[in-house]
# Entry
Amino acid sequence: MTSRGHDDRVTEEPRSDDTRETDDTGVEDDVHERITRLERLVTRDVRAAIPAWRRHTVGEQRWPFAVAIVVMIGFQAFLPERLSAGPWWALPALEVVIIVVLMLANPGRMERSSPGLRRLGLALITVASLGNGWSVVWLVLDIVTGRDTGTAAQLLASGGNVWLINTLTFAVWYWEFDRGGPLERALGSHPNPDFLFPQMSSPDMAPKEWEPQFIDYLYLAFTNSMAFSPTDTLPLSRWAKAAMLLQSAISLVTAALVVAKAVNALQ
# Structure
């Protein structure tokens, strides 16, 4: 037999520093990937748990607001001149200029902060509100003092115009101020709502991505004008309660006096 003078054991060569660094980098990448995946899962679960109206979402379109203003301008143009603040064309012309500027400056979604546009939008609804207040006061004075208000049909048409303008005006106010306005609502920066819509208190009965849009505020203003009180949406903040109180009072006085005067004119 032939004996071997050395062991047949295989001796591993020491690993180089480059190999160790490569292994460490691979481990770090794997850990980073796992953490990123976990963060995505947690973010997705948290996002699903928070309703859309309380988190950051895409901004609203401006065109529903613009359509409401255009309709309001149309009603103002058909008011008798005695119910208009100045020449019948002055207020509608000013509002048209402002709404055109707003649409040209930001025709799409409201997703970027612009103090200038915000102030211009508030100026628009302030002008419309002053015009509406003028119309309401003079309509009431005409009826109470027995001035000539025309035929019953003309009075009902004028009263209906004032009532609808009042409804649109308050719809825009609610939309502009609820939780800081449309931009702040999209950013989710105001968690406490000024108006409690049914979808907020019963989220299981609404789509997961539901959040209030302009049509919701228009419905709120319309039902408040019809019922003279909140219906399915409750005001939570003091300014919201005061605004709904004022709107209900204007609607009640306008409707009661106009209908009473019209019925008396028919007799």
Strands lie at 195-196, 234-235. The chain has a mean pLDDT of 83. The radius of gyration is 32 Å. The first helix runs from residue 17 to 49.
